[in-house]
Amino acid sequence: MITEIEVAAEQPYQVLVGHGLLDHVPGLLEGAVRVAVIHPSTLIGTAERLSAVITGAGAEVTRIDIPNGEAAKTAEVAATCWSVLGNAGFTRSDVIIGLGGGSATDLAGFVAATWLRGVRLITVPTTVLGMVDAAVGGKTGINTAEGKNLVGAFWEPRGVVCDLDLLAGLPRSEVISGLAEVIKCGFIADPVILDRIEADPAGVVELGSPVLREVIERSIDVKAKVVSADLRESTSVGDRVGRELVNYGHTLAHAIERRESYRWRHGEAVSIGMIFVAELSRLAGFLDQETARRHRAVLGAVGLPTSYPAGAFDELLATMAVDKKTRGGTLRFVILESLAKARILAGPDQDLLREAYAAIAS
Questions:
Q1: How many Cβ atoms sit within 10 Å of the Cβ of residue 234?
Q2: What range defines the domain where residue 348 resides?
Q3: Chain mean position to CA 63
Q4: Is 39 an annotated catalytic residue?
Q5: Are residues 94 and 214 in the same domain?
Q6: Catalytic residue (choose from 34, 73, 158, 243)
Q7: 117, 139, 167 — which closes off a domain?
């Protein structure tokens, strides 16, 4: 069974979810003479399988190996990709495929957005995190010494192929990390996700389980609806939330990732960030105590971290000051008024932030 999720972007596309979907990739390559497959070195076998499928459909394949994880998201790696594309003669009618986790698809998307001012992009995510977040929605980017994803572009893919077979062999820790973004979707838009996880926290971390597939599909649907309504993060006005909704918990999370030199998994940092912002929501007088408490309970139930060192606050605060949601030096947070109802909190008092941080301080 293949699930098709529509994304109503400027050029609408589909997210396909199911098993054995690599054979569907050639159907997205219409008119392409050359196809670049950008992938981490750990996925050479998968990249070769995908390349064979594409070659069999009549296109010429160039594989570009990139570093694993966040080490791929640098200007130097992007420049290497541009050089390979130039030497291979890539034109505007050709296609770039991002194969891998969120870092690989972020980089591939940025390369696609910038090569010849934009060529077609297809994403083939191979992690839970990549499927539910990074591969859908058109946000691409690389990191700088100053912060995460500060350089990038909005560039929608022409299709997303979520082949659940590609999750096989994914370390349990990576599955758990990806569930942070799934749980985020539950709190911001689809509480059924939380119900499913609370009912079977052991099953949801098992590859191939029906509950994992269901919450992946539900999370993709949340992301698809949010980005369809606001592709370029332009509708957040005042305390109203547009696409920034999917950044719930990410302001502190990105600061933690930078402090940890990206050795922490993204989902681990997002888990801490969500508990922090839930406490901030409660202390600001919006969120009830039980829903704030539920964050820690459901994240902890699947094995995600729920605390961070007490002495890190000042350094994290300085990093948050350059977060993408900051406007004119004013910190802005996506917070909850209630389950599945969010708003923007701009310029909270530093003492309030410190008190919210105390709730996660170990």
A1: 9
A2: 172-358
A3: 23
A4: no
A5: no
A6: 243
A7: 167
